[in-house]
Specification:
3 helices, Immunoglobulin-like, 17-stranded mixed sheet
Length: 414
Amino acid sequence: MATDPIARENEVVPEPETPRRPRRPFHKDPLSVLSWSIALAAVAAYWWLFVHKPVPQPGQQIARVTAVAGTVKVKPNATEGWRDARLADRLHVGDVVQTQPRSGAEISFNTGNVVQVRPDSVVYIGGSAESSTAAWRVQSGRVNFSVAREQTEIVTPTVRTTALQNAAGNIDVGDTGETGVKIFRGQAELETMQGQRITLGENQAVQVDAAGMAGARLELPPPPSLVSPAARAQIARLASSGASTEQRWTAVANGVTYHVAVDYNVTQAHLLLSAALEQAGIAGTTHVLSGLDVGRYFWRVAAVNREGLEGAFSRTSFFSVFQAPAPAPSPTPEAGPPPPLVLQTVEEVAPGVVHVGGRTVAGATVEVGGIAMRVRPDGSFSEHIRPVGGREVIVRATTPDGAVTELTRTLARR
């Protein structure tokens, strides 16, 4: 059959296919292997430096003692013996710190977190159950804490508290295991033995009973601001009974009463130990301290809400009492010139009755034989008296500054 020449000209002839080079496997491509290796190394480095938190090992040093007041004991890891805690002692995972009555200690972790251990408390440093070098557990007693850049885990018999960055608060473990948790600043996440999960914010608290069951979230009053005496004020002690000062602070929301604490020692005040002078249940925002001796006084104030829960203490301020120098005695005025004294009449007018008259300076006093005469404003005097002591009459004029003029007259016999 004949072929149409026009159709043959328009026929599209396919181009021959270019053969494809076979793809090299991933593990045999050096560039791919290198790129993925660099990416994996970067991820691993980021995780190790910024995400990974190494589990502390028993005996690893993670904290030190930065304040001691009273009797504080330390039991090093894996030993049975107790020793006295000393300032700057290094603390390790597994160490135990115990405070006696009216005693306290401050523990500073390498992470920057700080724990203030109150009296009659037992604190374990770190532990195998925690995954942070800032972790610690409170077996009994009360502690205050502040968190720096790394969050910390605080374990008690009934609740695990994770305090987040820049948080501050208080943990109180009772004799039967109940735990009170207060957050004064920042935020914390709680998990109880019963599996409850609770978030506490600033100035909030919760009580967890001995069975691990949490109660309702409660609002705490914020700390007051101290008004007077001003920081570093100097108060003079004038009398033997001691100095006095009026303490003033600001009222705060949810604060029904106030607790004022005064200490003689800055360490004791810093650790919030039982104060040397304190007054609770103050309804107003003033309190008078009296009978203060010479020395320095550190004071702070906390508010208490209707439920009886105490909020955070204010910043600690201090004032000083000094002994004021005794006032110099007033100089004795020098006596002026003797006053003029003129006797115009000294005459016995009747048996035993003498008329005495004369003149002296205005303001002077006149006595005749110890008997005071009435002196007129112009200095004149004239009275009938009964002098004692025979025929001699002694007349004395005295000015206010003590100058004296004295005259004696003998009565004529009748």
